[in-house]
Amino acid sequence: MVASIGKIASPSQGVSYYERDGYYAKDDPAHREASAWAGKGAEELGLSGPVDPDTFRAILEGRVPGGRQLGRKDPDGSIHHRPGRDVTLSAPKSVSVMALVGGDERIVAAHDRAVGKTLAWIEPNAIETRMQDKATGAMVRTGGQKMVAATFRHDASRNLDPQLHTHAVIANMAQGGDGKWRTTVDDGLYAGKMAIGAIYRAELAEGLRELGYGIERTHPDGRFEIAGISRDVIEAFSTRRAEIEAAMEERGLGKSGDNPNLAARAALMTRARKRDVDKEELRRSWERQARELGFSADIVRARARKVERELPAPDLFADRGNEAGDAAGWAVEHLSERHAVFGHADLLAAALGREPGKVTAGGAERAIAALEERGGLHAATGLGHGKHWTTDAALAQESETIALMQAGQGSGKAIMRGWIARTKLHRGRLNEGQKTAVKMILTSADRVVGVQGYAGTGKTTMLDRLRALLESRGYRTMGLAPSASAARTLERESEIGSETLQRFLAQHAGIGEGRGTPKGLRGLRASFSKTVLVVDESSLASSEQMRGLLRAATTLRVPRVVLVGDEKQLGAVEAGKPFEQLRRAGMKTAVMDEILRQRDKELKEAVRAGLAGEVKTAFEKLGERIVQVDRDRIGADAARRWLSLSPDQRAATGVIAPTRALRDEINGTIRAQLISEGAVSGPARRVEKLIPRDLTRAEMAWASSYSVEDTVILDTRVNCTPCVL
After folding, report:
1. Whole-structure pTM over 0.85, yes or no?
2. Phi/psi of residue 229, each to 5°?
3. Local structure of residue 79 (DSSP, 8 states)
4. Which end of the chain is more exposed for a tag (fewer CB within 10 A), N or C?
């Protein structure tokens, strides 16, 4: 039950696709009524009611009725026009079963209303064109366009399962405020995809609740099913889903819910051709299947009717703003834990997904606007497509972190004079980038300095030399890293005693917050008076962690904090990009960009191209090192190639897999071969491994975030925060 966005290949294919389902059949009024025009642009063109195929074809071709032909003129004088996009909104399987097998026409009406409200959001928020900015002359994306769309309601999947869904074909034409018709850009549609799905689900769930149906949330994004319909019934009427799951499992791609993008690819690979069937015969076959399953839609519908009769009459003066406000506040808390800045569409989707049907899109939008008005949300600019938000807490963390760094600039003294550092570094195996970094750290008067080093530039070799020179001056070097494995690697390769950043922060949390006695603080300051803190992989630290670190370092008067990071790495799990922000705010930073890890010239050039974002060049440089294999053979082939290596080569070669299922397949194949070789021997032990659910604190506090058979562990060491596994 998600929104999908597809491309219409050509006008003729678009029209024929919808004609195949008989929606233009002149002898069947019901089919005609299942199609309709939508959008203010359609109103401007006088289009309403059922969709006429000839007019629909003209719209897809970019022919504005009574106006000009839209499109790009090719060199031969012909006009090329992209028809448009198909936004498909699909009901949950249990909803389709009750509407189409159980014959509850009220549900079909609720689906139609949800589709209409979703399109009403898409038009002002996602329909854009390109116009010339009068001030700069540049072409910019511009909203506020009038949309032309045609909707087609279908009731069966390609596998002929009951599947209530609507294709909303959004034409590649829109009318601006100046009355001119232009082609559209799709950025807004794709950027708002999650919100589009969330709005449809929320509006549909509200309609179902009003009809007396219970709603059971089945996924964190707000996907749901009707209460009282068993999983067996849902799966029996979901042969298409079973095909996709089987295709993903066969290819080692994991579960469809874990990776929607891979699921979409599997859907295309297993896609059947549309078939013409007699709709009444199809309905009778669904009813027979339901009887064989022992499922009675009448019982579920009667229960809903009873609840509907007992529902209080709608209070037109009731204030539902509290529910929307709570949902919006929860969504801000949920998103801000992982992101210092988040998109409006993501915020809207999170607010609607918490309790499907309790909050409408309009209510959530008003609640978000109220948060902005009260100062709880702040608009963030210059961050790509669409509106973005940040919070007071994020702004405060970033501002304080930058202020602490800047307050320490020039406040200390150099550990070593420049000419001495140059002499010490004159000979040795360091390259110029590594020498520059060591010299900057030793000679700077700033408390906080940075080293920007790309992967493979020899950062740990540089740190090993730094440690030796610091020890010669009576300083100790203390290493910190965002993970235990990174701390171990730092200690092993640079001989710097290291621990996790989280451990250091936990030990010194009170210091940064002003707690402790004067005597205790004097003792701690003395112990850190000749300490250099080296934070490796600091680009993975969150804003909260960096603020805590600089608070503690400032209070303890640590003479030097060295932040070693790489802006091109993945960001922190929690919110913020403090390393990058500190660099932009003026933190003195040495750059190490000479690749040392790859000794092969072609590989080194491929890495450089990748760092520069030149993906095509990087692949060209890799050349024959890239091997193409069948998708269902990836795991077996990767394992075979590793097993073909000599023992020494195996020890120096890693295997990286993009999914857990593929990883397990590769590990299983390699393990079996190692056992047969005798490299792995002895009794085997099978153990149960708990996999973290990766919930935010906001999700942990919400009951519907938990599933049957989840294991919840209360960790008393971290204020009883539940760890869901």
Report:
1. no
2. -110, 120
3. E
4. C
